[in-house]
Amino acid sequence: MGIRLGCIADDFTGATDLANNLVRAGMRVVQLIDVPEEGPAGQRPVDADAVVIALKSRTVPAAEAVDASLRALAWLREAGAEQIYFKYCSTFDSTPAGNIGPVSEALMEAMGTDFTIATPAFPDNGRTVFKGHLFVGDVLLADSGMRNHPLTPMTDSNLVSVLGAQTKGAVGLIDHAVVAAGAEAVRGRVDELREAGVRIAVADAVSNDDLVRLGAAVRGLPLVTAGSGLAIGLPVNWGFEPSLEAARLPPAHGHAAVVSGSVSVATNRQVREFLNSGRPAFAVDPLSIAAGEDVVGEALAFAAARLGDGPVLVYSTEAPEAVRTVQGRLGAAEAGDLVERALAAVARGLVDRGVRRLVVAGGETSGAVVRALGVTALRIGPQIDPGVPWCAARLAGGDTLHLALKSGNFGGPAFFTAAFGLTAREAS
User: What is the DSSP string of 126-191?
Assistant: First the structure.
C-alpha cells in the first residue's frame, strides 16, 4: 500500500513541525531530507503512514523552489500518496516574488487541480487567521518581530493581499463564520469561490476546532497548502487516532548540545535564558569568520572541554540591530552563508566528539546541519513543545542521533534545557 499523505515542506524545521502534528494525531511519519535520488521502489520508508520531504526552498529564487517542489511531488505520487500537503511557515514567510504562491500554482498545474486552500494558522503556537489577517499572539503579523526578518520581512498582515501578489490566479477568502459553521459550509463556500474563478482561498482559523473542521472539509482536495496546524485535522480522514506508539523512538544517550543560528525573538529569549542559567555557551562572530579566524576550531575546543557537564550552546543568535550591522559590513547573503557553514561544521564536530542529543535552532541552520551530518531520513518522535519533536537519525557508523530541529519562532524561554529533560526521562 502506498503512503496516505505526502508532504512537501519548504524548510527543515517546518518539516519536523508538520510531522510532529501528524504523529500526535496517530500517523507514523518519516521525514526525508531532500528528494531521494533513487525512486520510491528502492527508498520507500517502512511502516510509515505519511512521508514529509524536507526542502530548503523557502528563500531560494522562486524558479528553484518550484523545481524542487515538483521533484518532491513526482516522488510522492509515485510512492502512492493519496493527498499532497505543501507546508510553509506559520508566519507565511515569503516575499512579493514568492515562494508560496508560485509553488502552490505549480503543484496545482502538475496535479491537474483547479482549487486549493491556504492557511498558516497554528493556534497552539499563537498563529491565528481572522478575516484573512494573520496574527502572531495578540498582534498582527506586520506588527510582530517578523517585520524585521532579515530574509523575509513581513509588513502586510492581509494574507489575501500577500498571496495575491505572488499568484497569477485569483485569491479568495473562507472567513471564520463559514469555518465555524462546519465542513459542509466550507465545502459550499469552496463551490462558490470556484464558480467565481478563485483558485486559492485563504481560510480563517482561530482554534484547533477550526482546523479540525477544515481538515474534514478538504478531505477530497488533491492538494492542500498550509502551515503545520492543518495537520491535526487530516489523519482522522483515514481513521487514525492519537497513539503513543506512533511517537516511539530508541532511548537517547550521549552528550547534549545546542547549535543556534536563528535571529528570531523567541530564540533570542531562549539563548538569554540559557546564558542566565550559567550554562556553558560560545558565541560565533561572523566578522571573525570573515577575517579568517578559526572560529569553528575555537568553538569545538570550548565545547569539548565542557560536554560532560551537561548541554553546551554554540550560537550566532543576535538581536535584529546587531544582525543588520553585520549584514551592512558583509552583505546579507554572505553573512548568512558564513554563519550557516560555520555552525554546520561545529555540529559535525560535536557529533564526532560524542554528542548524540542535538538541538538545532533556525530553519536555514537546520538545513545546513543535517546536510553536513549526512542525514537522509528522520523518524519522528515525541513533542517537546508545540511544533517541535525529537527525531531519530541513523549515523553512518550505526549510532542513533537524536535531533530536534526547531523553527526560530517556536518554543518557550527554557526550551533548550526542557528538551534534554524530556530525553533524560525517556532514557530512564
Answer: TEEEETTEEEETTEEGGGSGGGG-SSS-----BHHHHHHTT-SSEEEEE-HHHHHT-HHHHHHHHH
